[in-house]
Structures are given as C-alpha cells and as structure tokens.
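Input (structure):
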C-alpha cells in the first residue's frame, strides 16, 4: 500500500522558518516528479512547487519563489520543503504529491 506522510508543520511567527518532510512508503518514487501543494480554508488547493525525479530541476509558484526550496533524497524515499521568511498568507495545510498519490497533509500556521 502506497503511503505518503507529511510532517514538520506547526505554529511559527512571521519571518521564521519550517522544514516539512514527506515520507513515502509502499513503493519507490525515485523515478517520479514530486510536488508540494497547499490549501488554505475556503481556497482551492494551490501548487507550490515541484522537483524532478533526479533533483536536477525545480519549479516554484511566484508566491513562494525565493523563500521556499524543495529537495529530495531518493535513497531514503523522502522529500522536503524548506520554508523561509514565512508570512501569514502561507498559513495552510501542506501536501506532498507523487502523481496520483497524496499525503494527509500537515498544518502550517504563521501568526504573531
């Protein structure tokens, strides 16, 4: 059974950082592009960014470009989202994605 589990969310103040992790099990995703998305209450799920299977290329939404960094460790079947300079508008549930597979999400709240 394929399972993705996000972790690392929490409550932080504006300007602080968080690092989210995505642990995959049930199969290897080393040949798949990994994406990160988020969804704030009342909003549709929003694409944040993606990284190619070998990590050679990343792509980010304008809203997070320069602040967020996606990385992966295929040997560990792990993906990461480093979030710096967090803003209140970054508050959302964050999800990792491989193709049709989604995690359950982890809550990130940015508030003073």
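Output (sequence):
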């Amino acid at each position: 059974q394929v399972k993705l589990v996000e972790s690392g969310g929490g409550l932080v103040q504006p300007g602080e950082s968080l690092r989210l992790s995505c642990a995959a099990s049930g199969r290897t995703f080393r040949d798949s592009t990994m994406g990160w998305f988020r969804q704030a209450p009342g909003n549709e799920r929003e694409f944040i960014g993606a990284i190619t299977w070998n990590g050679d290329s990343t792509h980010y939404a304008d809203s997070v470009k320069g602040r967020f960094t996606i990385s992966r460790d295929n040997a560990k079947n792990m993906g990461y989202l480093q979030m710096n300079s967090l803003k209140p508008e970054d508050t959302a549930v964050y999800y990792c994605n491989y193709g049709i597979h989604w995690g359950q999400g982890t809550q990130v709240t940015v508030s003073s």
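Notes: The chain has a mean pLDDT of 95. The CA atoms of residues 37 and 47 lie 5 Å apart.
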